[in-house]
Each structure stands twice: as structure tokens, then as C-alpha cells.
Design goal:
With 72 residues, the chain is an alpha+beta fold. 44% of the residues lie in helices and 19% in strands.
């Protein structure tokens, strides 16, 4: 996480955080890829975050793909 904080301070572009839109409150989005970038951004005091919003179908597709990668 320190490396991510340093990158943020140096203005290095980081990939967007992947989120899906929740169907119920209290939050509008749920992070499913990029937790370290999300928490590092909050720790650095950023109020805006670049994110990639996916629908639930894309979320499950990404999860299946990631899980398949771990089995190799």
C-alpha cells in the first residue's frame, strides 16, 4: 500500500478501481477490484476516484475470469 500512496503523491496514473452499482442503499457502488487503490486514495485525502462501473453481469464475468486464473 505504501507504493500506491507514493504513486498517488507523485501523480502517477493508476488504473481505475472496478465497481458495480449496488441495487440497495446505503452506498451506490461496491468495490470489487482495487481495494488497495481505494483505501490509499482515501488515506491520501483524495475526494474523487477514477472508477470503472460495471453492471452485475460484468461483475460476475470478471469474478469467474479471475477465479479461473487462480486455478492455473
Amino acid at each position: 500500500m505504501i507504493e500506491i500512496l507514493n504513486a498517488i503523491r507523485e501523480g502517477i496514473f493508476l488504473p481505475p478501481v472496478a465497481v458495480y452499482e449496488k441495487l440497495s442503499p446505503p452506498y451506490r457502488y461496491e468495490v470489487y477490484d482495487g481495494y488497495h487503490r481505494y483505501y490509499a486514495s482515501a488515506a491520501a485525502g483524495l475526494v474523487d476516484l477514477i472508477r470503472r462501473v460495471n453492471d452485475l453481469e460484468a461483475f460476475f464475468s470478471d469474478m469467474l475470469e479471475c477465479n479461473g486464473d487462480h486455478r492455473k
